Amino acid sequence: MGNLTSEVLRLYVGGFNPGTSTTSMSATLAVGALDPTSFGDPAERVAADIRQDRLEWAGWLNDATGGIDKIMGTLIGTLGVVVSFVIGTATGARSYNGTSLMTKAAPVGNVKELVKVEAEWRPDGALDVSKHFGEAQALTAGTASGSVDDAAASTAGVVFYTHVIGFVGTNTYRMVLEDSADGASFADIATADHTGTGGARTVLAGAVRRYIRMTTSWATTGGGTATGTANFFGAYARG
């Protein structure tokens, strides 16, 4: 078993990347959802299906336009925000992905010290243990990621998580999940279209073949040439 440096932890939330602001992160996976009929849970439960899983983040405050303080302040209290906790940078490395409710975003500091922000998310469904296609990277439309060999096909579908970061463009940015039986001939199985910065969760039912990869492109409508820039991140979890 190899060691992993903490420098390769990443957080993507709703198409936002805190980047070098990050100082610490943690993920806690629970066995099941909170039970509103039990004695202890009602005081904790804030919305239907909120689980005891928890994602926590801390980093340096940045109150500039587009900075982490401004971004996280707009997300607090919002259900369904896609959050990805990423470990490692290699294709096929582990990540934890889900939709969530942001329950905390608070500046913390002492006199004459840099101010930090602490944030917390509670998943509003299962937190999927996933594999990703590398950390967020600049768009090269039409280029496929490396493929992941999952050793065998599966029959319970797949969940496709995507983030588009810093979107500037004239058309839709399309991210496509593909599968293959032999690692050479791939076919599209799930598509996530983004018209701006943000995250998405796309669910596919049914059989998924052994190998999986992701491709990206600008999707045009009515002809013409799409232009723009963006960074993207993708991950998947088999059912």
Keywords, please?
single chain, 239 residues, mainly beta, Pnp Oxidase, Chain A, Jelly Rolls, 2 domains, eleven-stranded antiparallel beta sheet, four-stranded antiparallel beta sheet, 1 helix, 15 strands, 49% strand
Quick summary:
With 239 residues, this protein is mostly beta strands. 3% of the residues lie in helices and 49% in strands.
Description:
By secondary structure, the protein is mainly β. The protein folds into two domains: 6-130, Roll (Pnp Oxidase, Chain A), CATH 2.30.110; 136-238, Jelly Rolls (Sandwich), CATH 2.60.120.1110. The protein has one helix and 15 strands. It has one helix spanning 68-75, and strands spanning 9-13, 22-28, 54-60, 81-87, 91-108, 116-123, 128-133, 137-138, 148-149, 158-169, 172-180, 187-194, 198-204, 211-219, 228-238. The strands form two sheets. Strands 1, 2, 3, 4, 5, 6, 7, 8, 10, 13 and 15 form an eleven-stranded antiparallel β-sheet that branches. A four-stranded antiparallel β-sheet has the order 9-14-11-12, with no helix packed on it. The model is unreliable at 41-46 (pLDDT under 50).
SSE order and pairing:
Elements: E1 9-13, E2 22-28, E3 54-60, H1 68-75, E4 81-87, E5 91-108, E6 116-123, E7 128-133, E8 137-138, E9 148-149, E10 158-169, E11 172-180, E12 187-194, E13 198-204, E14 211-219, E15 228-238
Cα distance spanning the termini: 26 Å
Strand content: over 45%
**Tertiary shape:** globular
Write the element-wise H/E pattern from the N-terminal end onward. EEEHEEEEEEEEEEEE
Q: Quaternary status of these chains?
A: single chain
Mean pLDDT: 82
CATH topology of the largest domain: Pnp Oxidase, Chain A
Q: Which value, in Å, is the CA radius of gyration?
A: 19 Å
* Total of DSSP H or I helical runs spanning 4+ residues: 1
Task: Please give the largest β-sheet.
Answer: 11 strands, antiparallel
Q: Uncertain segments of ≥5 residues (pLDDT<50)?
A: 41-46
- Give the tally of structural domains: 2
Binned, the helix content reads under 10%
